[in-house]
Structure formats: C-alpha cells, structure tokens
C-alpha cells in the first residue's frame, strides 16, 4: 500500500541490521506467534501475552482487552522504540488503564446519557463518564478476556481474537459475537479487521485505543509530531463531549489538519471546543466517507526520529484525542511517568452518539447482518 515500505527494509540493511533481527518478511514467513504468561486476574484467570513480528514491526498483544501492550518500529537509523503507551504488569491494566492499546466495544466513544431508542424500544446502557456512556460502559471489551488463536497465512502472521458479549451486557441488547483479527504483513503493516453478528437489533461501534508516541513511549510530548487528517469537517461537541449534531467546517479553526501540521501549533488557542475537550478530543468527518475498502485517512510523523504512521480505514470518522487526561499519575512500560500530551490516539469509528443522531451514518446491526470494519496502520521512516 505504501512505496515507503521498501525504504524500511532497505534502510535496515544499510544500517547493518540483519533480516533476522528486524523480522523481515523472509525471516518471519510462516513463524507462529509466541505465547507467554503475562499475569493473572484477581479471580485466577491467566492473561497471556502474544509476541508477533513481521516486516520490521514487532508487537505484543494481551488476551486481556486485546491490548497492544507494545509495538516496536525502527527509526531512520534502524533503532527500535516501543511507540505505544502501556504497562509492564496486568495489575495496572486492571486498576488504572485509560484504555491503553485496548479493543473498544460495544460502542466506541460516547452515547449521550447512555440512552437510545431502537425499533421503538428505549435502552439504558451503563453510564461511566459523567452523565454519559463511554467506550461501552464500566466493563467494556477493553476489560474482558478474549480467546486468542494465532495464525500464519502466506507471508502474514497474526491473531484472531474472539469475544461473545451476552444479551444485556452493559445494557446493550442482543448476544454479540465479535471476531477481531490483527495481521502483521510482510511490509510491517498492522491491519485490524473487525467482524460482529447479533441475534437482536443492537448498536455497534468497535475501535482500537492505541496511544501513539512515535519518538517512543515515555519520551515526552507529542506536540512536535506532525499530523494530517483528510477531513474538511468535524463534529463539534457540548461540554460533556456529546456532538451537537452539526458537521462544522475545519477551515479557519484549530481543527484544520488538511495540510500536515505540528500538533502543538494551535493546541493553546482559546477556542471553545478546545476548552470543552481540555485539548483535542474530537471526531473528524473523513472526506472519503464509509468505504468498502480501507482508504488513506491520516498521516502522523515524528520529525525527530523519522517514524511515520499512515492510516487507512473503511470507517467514516476518526477520533483524535491529544492525551489530555494523562496527568502524571501512571508509570508506563519503561518506568517513565506519562504526563498530559505524552501520546495521542487516532480512533477509527462511526461518529459519537450516532444512536441519537439520525443524520449520522447508522451504527445499528440487525440479525442476519455482519458488522465489518477494517483499519490499516502502515509504518515507514
Ligand atoms: C477517548 C475519549 C476521551 C478519553 C479517552 C481515554 O479518546 O474520547 O475523552 O476518555 O478516550 O481517557
């Protein structure tokens, strides 16, 4: 998908790194992901960590929350860093994770007051964010243990993750059977394919909540990263971060990322929307809309290391969250404290509060239908 992928492999060779050490396509072809014990939940349930490597990208995934616990990519000199925030132990994930690296469901982002009406019936889902429901409620998919099945297919390696959410869980109707596939390609791309079916009409909005810092987790602010988002509009919110329903132009606002822009550039503008979000915590209306195949939507670059993340998705929306609630109370994988703005999230999704916004693309899933969504993360340097 990306010409720059060739430079990743060629660059590593130039830096004297052998194919085996970076896990190039050839070296990892057919290699099954490796499982190890990560820890135990309070009730004794074992949580496993799965290690995968392909095409120059290395990742560790937990059975708890489908969490990407670590994602390592090289910089322009071939030096690896873990570019995703996380913890080194299961206890911290359970006690205090702000969704680090996790799969989010049933409904990524917010539902106003946790209420919606579907086919004439009123539902109340779990409220866990002030007056609203966030990321599926107090015990969303990020806090569930998933069944994990490794695979190798041609030059791809990956994991299938399965979770069945019972009828009524967190207040949502229908038994929802979810399958998420993480694939690492021979180019080092990380692809996520989501699929879900239900036995009653329900709402679904699945996403992934990786906190990116392309200079390496724990290395400081992401304000000098440069970001481009292919979106001319965004969804302004009220003080509870629920969309007003308007699709507002980004032109002339701090939300204009149509050309690559330093994230810190407009972050301190006294714009009402930035005051509501304590920074950026907003959904962009992607120009491409819903697409049957993943299309390019955003590029994030750290000029200091050269590490670049390019994203493609089938989804119509992208939540860009500038790490506003990181407050120096969490100690990450490398032993460093995470402070405000030390990472950002780019969550591909349908728009927040869609169940209450008839004009937004629908998040309703009915029996007989299959929910599908795909997002690709392509790395270069
Ligand atoms: C999402 C939300 C934010 C915040 C983070 C986690 O990005 O939109 O408001 O809750 O998750 O802290």
From TrEMBL:
It holds the Pfam family Aldose_epim. One of its GO terms (molecular function) is isomerase activity. Pathway: Carbohydrate metabolism; hexose metabolism. SUPFAM superfamilies: Galactose mutarotase-like (SSF74650). Keywords: Carbohydrate metabolism, Isomerase. It catalyses: alpha-D-glucose = beta-D-glucose. Residues 349-381 are annotated as: Disordered. NCBIfam families: PRK11055.1 (NF008277). Belongs to the aldose epimerase family. This is Aldose 1-epimerase. It comes from Streptomyces coerulescens. The lineage of its organism: Bacteria, Bacillati, Actinomycetota, Actinomycetes, Kitasatosporales.
């Amino acid at each position: 998908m990306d010409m720059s992928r060739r430079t990743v492999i060629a660059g590593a060779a130039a830096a004297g790194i052998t194919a085996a050490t970076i896990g190039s396509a050839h070296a990892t072809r057919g290699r099954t992901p490796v499982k190890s014990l990560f820890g135990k939940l309070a009730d004794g349930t074992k949580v496993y960590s799965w290690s995968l490597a392909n095409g120059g990208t290395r990742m560790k995934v937990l059975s708890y929350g489908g969490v990407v616990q670590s994602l390592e990519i090289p910089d322009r000199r071939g030096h690896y860093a873990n570019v995703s925030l996380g913890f080194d132990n299961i206890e911290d994930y359970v006690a205090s994770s702000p969704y680090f690296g996790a799969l989010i469901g049933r409904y990524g982002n917010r539902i106003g007051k946790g209420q919606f009406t579907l086919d004439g019936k009123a539902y109340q889902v779990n409220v866990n964010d002030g007056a609203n429901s966030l990321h599926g409620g107090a015990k969303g998919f990020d806090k569930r243990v998933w069944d994990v099945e490794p695979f190798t297919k041609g030059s791809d390696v990956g994991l299938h993750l399965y979770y069945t959410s019972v009828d009524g869980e967190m207040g949502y109707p229908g038994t929802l059977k979810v399958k998420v596939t993480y694939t690492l390609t021979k180019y080092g791309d990380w692809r996520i394919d989501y699929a879900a079916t239900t036995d009653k009409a329900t709402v679904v909005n699945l996403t992934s909540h990786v906190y990116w810092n392309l200079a390496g987790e724990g290395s400081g602010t992401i304000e000098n990263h440069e970001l481009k988002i292919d979106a001319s509009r965004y969804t302004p919110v009220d003080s509870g971060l629920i969309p007003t329903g308007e699709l507002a132009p980004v032109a002339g606002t701090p939300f204009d990322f149509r050309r690559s822009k330093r994230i810190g550039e407009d972050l301190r503008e006294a714009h009402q929307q930035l005051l509501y979000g304590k920074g950026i915590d907003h959904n962009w209306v992607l120009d491409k809309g819903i697409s049957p195949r993943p299309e390019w939507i955003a590029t994030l670059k750290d000029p200091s290391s050269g590490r670049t993340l390019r994203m493609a998705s089938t989804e119509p929306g992208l939540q860009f969250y500038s790490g506003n609630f990181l407050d120096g109370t969490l100690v990450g994988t490398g032993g460093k404290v995470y402070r405000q703005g030390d990472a950002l999230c780019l969550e591909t999704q349908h728009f927040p509060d869609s169940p209450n916004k008839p004009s937004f693309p629908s998040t309703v899933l009915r029996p007989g239908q299959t929910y599908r969504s795909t997002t690709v993360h392509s790395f270069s340097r």
